[in-house]
Amino acid sequence: MALYKHWFVDFGPFQDGEFIDSELGPIPKGWEVKRLDDLADILNSKRIPLSTRERSTRKGKFPYYGASGIIDFVDDYLFDGEYVIISEDGENLRSRKTPIAFSAVGKFWVNNHAHIVRGKMRGINKLLISHMAQLDMNPFLTGAVQPKLNKQNLLSIGISFPEDVSIIEELLDEFHSYSSKQISNELENQSLTQLRDTLLPKLISGEVRLKEFKEQIESVL
């Protein structure tokens, strides 16, 4: 998310260039403000809510999504592919305790408490998730007690976007590199934790010496 903000909100890589005024503030020359519906299709008409009772008789392997993620598994699916799910209502739209936009991949079902969105070109799904994560939602919400992001307001959300599509490709490469490093660090941490849990009792019992312990730890780093 920090990478997206650096590129698409703070325009870090483009600070040396010329800027123009827009409804979102200054943006680099050669960029424009697009509405969300310029970049993605909204597929809400395909949603079908299932009551708790209905779901209890339709247990299966397909995720059943609500506004904040998977809430059950059912025996059929409505969508198959790569999509973005965006919360439509609920307190979490204000509190942001969990993400309000997240990826859903494969076969799944969605209820009517979440918008279902699909980017019109490669990479848009990732950009939408990152954009929603840093966006101040208050101007787009209705309902004092139960916050709601209706379809009309969702579609009106403005996003600064480059005319040069190669910039999107470059950002996606950065995303991929960043994600790969994250995964590598997580795997390294898992290996170190596993090695520690295995070797520490042996070190305490005298089964291995301190030198051997250090050597095995260093082999993972």
UniProtKB/TrEMBL annotation:
<dbReference type="InterPro" id="IPR052021">
    <property type="entry name" value="Type-I_RS_S_subunit"/>
</dbReference>
<dbReference type="InterPro" id="IPR044946">
    <property type="entry name" value="Restrct_endonuc_typeI_TRD_sf"/>
</dbReference>
<dbReference type="GO" id="GO:0003677">
    <property type="term" value="F:DNA binding"/>
</dbReference>
<keyword id="KW-0238">DNA-binding</keyword>
<feature type="domain" description="Type I restriction modification DNA specificity">
    <location>
        <begin position="28"/>
        <end position="189"/>
    </location>
</feature>
<dbReference type="Pfam" id="PF01420">
    <property type="entry name" value="Methylase_S"/>
</dbReference>
<dbReference type="GO" id="GO:0009307">
    <property type="term" value="P:DNA restriction-modification system"/>
</dbReference>
<dbReference type="InterPro" id="IPR000055">
    <property type="entry name" value="Restrct_endonuc_typeI_TRD"/>
</dbReference>
<keyword id="KW-0680">Restriction system</keyword>
<comment type="similarity">
    <text>Belongs to the type-I restriction system S methylase family.</text>
</comment>
<protein>
    <recommendedName>
        <fullName>Type I restriction modification DNA specificity domain-containing protein</fullName>
    </recommendedName>
</protein>
